[in-house]
Every structure is written in C-alpha cells, then in structure tokens.
Amino acid sequence: MSAKFRFFLVVLLLSSLPIWAQTHKSAKAPASADWKDVDAAMGRAGQDQPDGTHKYALPRKDMNVTVNGVQIKAGLALGSWVAFKATSQGNAMAMGDLVLAEDEVGPVMAELQSGGIEITALHNHLIGESPRVMYMHIHGMGNAANLAKAIHSAIAKTKTPDAGAASAPPDLDIDTKQIDQILGHAGKNNGGIYQVGVPRAEHITEGGMAIPNSMGVATALNFQPTGGGKAAITGDFVLVAKEVNPAIKALRENGIAVTALHSHMLQEQPRLFFMHFWANDDAVKLAKGLRAALDQINSAKK
Fold first, then answer.
1. Is 44 exposed, middle or buried, given 0-12, 13-18 or 19+ CB atoms closer than 10 A?
2. Higher-scoring residue by pLDDT: 65, 14
3. Please, which residues bridge with residue 221 across strands?
4. Nearby residues of 281 by Cβ (< 8 Å), 6 or more positions away
5. What does the alpha-carbon distance between residue 110 and residue 112 come to, in Å, rounded to a whole number?
6. Nearest one of 179, 93, 133 to 276, comparing CA atoms
7. First-to-last CA distance in the chain?
8. Single pTM value for the model
9. HSE on the CB side for 96, CA within 13 Å?
10. Confidence class for position 1, pLDDT limits 50, 70, 90
11. CA distance to 148, 186, 242, 250, per residue, from 297 (Å)
C-alpha cells in the first residue's frame, strides 16, 4: 500500500468520525418522556425529579395513627409514592410503596395483580402503631399509561385522598442547621417533617436496569418535631449485607430502636436490606446517633 493511499484512508476515516459519533449518540439518546397520559391515568400531576423520574406523592392524610403517644404526620411514615422511569417511547418502569390499612391489603393486592403490577414486598415499618399500618412495595414494566391505570385502580380501593392544594409547611421547632451539619447532608421541610436523603455511593440495578435514588434506594431520615427541641424519627437505612449489623449496633448504642429489617425489591443488584428505626428524643442527639449509623455504610459524598 502506497504512502499516498494510506494518507487518503486516514483522511477519509477522520472526516467520517463526526458523522458516526452523531449517529451513535442519536441512537443511544433516550426518548424524552411525555407524562401527560400518565398524569391523566393517575388522576393527579406528578413531579419531575432531578434524576429523571416522574414521581407522585400520595400522603395518607386520612389516617389517624399514633406511635407511643405521638400523632404521626403523613410525611414521617405515611407517605405512599409511585415513580416512573422512561425506558423507551411510551414505556416505563414503575416502582412504589403504598401505605395501607390492614383491610386494604387484600383488595389492593388483587387489583394490582390483575393489572400486571408485581408485589415485591409487604410488611411493617413501625412497631406499636395504632391502628396497624402495612406497606406494599410494587414494580411494573410496560406501557406507562397502562401501568398508571392499573396503579390508580388499586389506589381507588383505599381511602387515599385526592391531591390537595399545596400550602406553606409549618415552621420546625428543631435545629435543622445543626442536624444538616451532623449528618453531612441538607434536608428539606416537607409538610412539617424534616426529611434528609442520603444516596448510596454505588449504582443500584433492578433486573439489569439502573434505579434512580428517587425510586427508593437512598437512605431516608425523617424528623417530626415533638416540642422542646425533640423529634420523633423514622425512615430507613439502605444497606448491603455486611453493613446490617454494624448499623444496628450504632443505632441501638444511641438509643434508636430498630423496628424492621427486610427487602423492598426482588432482583436488585447489589442485594439490599432496608432497616427501619424509631426514637423520640432531642433532635440533635438523635442526629448524632443516625450519623453513627451512616458512618457504617457506603454513602455517596456530598
């Protein structure tokens, strides 16, 4: 092969790279999601999340639940949610956690399964609550609007209220700045509950598909002020197997009870365990206990 011919091939290859790169990029770029049909099927508007999901908050404000004399607000432990992640044009993965009264479990489960939605877990999150509350985790793949219709039909079997008008959250009688500093992550006031999310450092997949943090794979730490700088806390730590017992030890050494340990999904990688907790004490003191447990797990840095 002559030097002139080799030079010609190199020029041809280099001139083709921008066209190939653009074609390759276009083929890999996900279709932009249009959630109008899904909102219509769900009967309410969802909210686009920074990590690309479309999420519906379904607070069980109809429930009157107490734990050890504390009246539980929806944002502390009674917040149903459903999130959709687009997989292709018109199709999505749906995941969620439905907060249910005991007599709602059977009808909701039957309606979900008839609509092609999988139940991936059913369990408690709290101990000693009155009346008893159950939590049903769900998963679905397929046409996004059809998934939403099936989920909406199941929710209609409950007393979950319709979406109300947004209102300004009440002030929080706890030192949130100090809590942020201790935990190393900033929280937000959601209806009078101070909520802090702490993602894991590694990527989580379910059935080979990446799961965004807003689909329930970030540690959730919730504070409900109970007066005098105190707060009731609950939520869940997202753990791999080797972290479970060190986290339990850290919580218990700081006066925080472990109330449940279980799975939420069926085919996640790495395998995850979700550990729920409860305490009602000085909010800053409890934040230090939560931080001791966070130090035992592979959390993402700020």
1. middle
2. 65
3. 196, 235
4. 230, 231, 255
5. 6
6. 133
7. 56
8. 0.87
9. 29
10. low
11. 34, 18, 9, 11
Amino acid found at 216: G
pLDDT tens per residue, range 266-299: 999 999 999 999 999 999 999 999 999 999 999 9
Which band of pLDDT confidence, cut at 50, 70 and 90, is reported for residue 163?
confident
Q: If you average pLDDT over residues 163-181, what whole number do you get?
A: 89
> Do 83 and 98 touch, CB atoms closer than 8 A?
no
Whole-angstrom distance, CA of residue 67 vs CA of residue 129: 5
Structure tokens at 190: 């959601």
Nearest Cα to Cα of residue 83 among 121, 137, 159 = 137
Q: Which has the closest alpha carbon to 201: 264, 294, 283? A: 294
CB 35 within 8 A of CB 89: no
Strands 70-71 and 66-67: antiparallel
- Per-residue pLDDT tens over the stretch 50-84: 999 999 999 999 999 999 999 999 999 999 999 99
* The length of the chain, given as a count of residues: 302
d(CA 136, CA 18): 49
